[in-house]
Amino acid sequence: MKLQLSATVLDSPDARVLAGFYRRLLGWEAKFEDDDWVMLRAPDGGASLSFQTEPRYVRPVWPAGEGDPPMMMHLDIHVDDLAAAGAHAVEHGAELAAFQPQEGVRVYLDPAGHPFCLFVD
């Protein structure tokens, strides 16, 4: 039996808007796109990143407090220059999170509020 992860899917109020952010951030191309679903292709052939429109989407709070909608997952993105990658992320619509838990990692929020981490080894 073969099991292979093909994509991670992020919900958002508008799949096209969120996919556009990650398209610009990562430089990936769309493999499939319609009004409510977009799949971005990983250039190295690895797992894709997909986005679906969810009309009842609730923006997560990070870090979540009592009663806040928590993040359900986050993306880790390896970079070679943390400052340059952070500036690139902000230029394309990310927001630097107020809370930063460790050195060598910067937490950002995408336009739908999903946290993602930029990190160096």
UniProtKB/TrEMBL annotation:
Q: Which organism is it from?
A: Arthrobacter subterraneus
What PANTHER family does the record tag this protein with? CONSERVED PROTEIN, HYPOTHETICAL FUSION PROTEIN
Residues annotated as domain VOC: 4-121
What is this protein called in UniProt?
VOC domain-containing protein
- According to the record, the signal peptide region is none
Task: Supply the PROSITE patterns for this chain.
Answer: VOC
Which Pfam families is this protein grouped with?
Glyoxalase_6 (PF18029)
SUPFAM superfamilies, from UniProt?
Glyoxalase/Bleomycin resistance protein/Dihydroxybiphenyl dioxygenase (SSF54593)
| CDD domains on file | VOC
